[in-house]
Design goal:
alpha/beta; pyrroline-5-carboxylate reductase activity; 5-stranded mixed β-sheet; NADP; 259 residues; Rossmann fold; 7 strands; two-stranded parallel sheet
């Protein structure tokens, strides 16, 4: 996710690459790779990465969150804005770990950020002002859309749009396999599938009709679509996707209990 955000803001000229400092736990090879690819600057130490930053973006796995955030605490300065893209970890927990009252916001983008099409949800912590929120909105709008939500809704967002691209790729994977088994080439199938998904997405975005209404327009009685949807219903795919999202939401809630 950190790379997707970097790629997005650099491509859209929101930030110059040489103003972005990066640091991870110990993988210097990965830092060098990112430097070569984007022109960002690896920091030799945590202190160097944090001390001069205007905005600190936390993009680590929830299991590493406590150790990572607490390691920043000695170097964080008053008024630095902290933005977390860590799943499940609340702004209150981050404030507790950093032992200060810095403004903290949580963002839940998705990996489509790398091409400027992230669906990002944004929530502010108790010490964050509207000015901080606007700064974050301007940042994340460079990589897609931004929706402001109360923090207690971010678990839902995580399971829905945070993980959402993977659900769509899962569908595309199945469509690709079926097409190739039925003798279309890989490239023929990819072109047809990607354009179909794009078109359906734009219909959802640009019309006032609901998904149900749009689906019914394609589903003629006795036709091919009805036959295909019938098979999906037979396998309870609709219910499976609802269960999938709810399970992802519960997992986000579980990650939020990490201390």
């Amino acid at each position: 996710m950190a790379e997707a955000i970097m790629e997005g803001v650099i491509k859209t000229n929101k930030w110059q690459a040489n103003l972005i400092t990066i640091k991870n736990r110990s993988n210097s090879g990965r830092l060098k790779e990112l430097q070569t690819k984007y022109g960002v600057i690896p920091a030799p130490t945590i202190k160097k990465a944090v001390s001069d930053a205007e905005i600190i973006i936390l993009a680590v796995k929830p299991k590493d969150a406590s150790q990572a955030v607490k390691s920043l605490e000695p170097f964080i300065q008053k008024e630095q804005l902290i933005i977390s893209v860590m799943a499940g970890i609340s702004t209150g927990t981050i404030t507790e770990w950093t032992n200060n009252e810095n403004p903290v916001l949580r963002a839940m983008p998705n990996t489509s950020a790398s091409i400027g099409y992230s669906a990002t949800a944004l929530s502010k912590g108790i010490s964050a002002s509207d000015v901080h929120v606007q700064k974050a909105v301007e940042l994340f709008e460079t990589i897609g859309t931004v929706t402001l939500v109360p923090e207690d809704k971010l678990h839902i967002v995580t399971g829905l749009s945070g993980s959402g691209p993977a659900y769509i790729y899962y569908i595309a994977e199945a469509m690709q396999k079926a097409a190739e088994e039925l003798s279309l080439s890989h490239e023929e199938a990819k072109t047809l599938i990607s354009q179909t998904l794009l078109g359906a997405s734009l219909m959802l975005k640009n019309t006032s009709e609901s998904p149900i209404e749009l689906r019914k327009k394609v589903t003629s009685p006795g036709g091919t679509t009805e036959a295909g949807i019938g098979k999906l219903d037979q396998y309870q795919v609709h219910d499976a996707f609802i269960a999938c999202i709810k399970k992802a939401v519960r997992r986000s809630e579980e990650l939020g209990n990490i201390k």
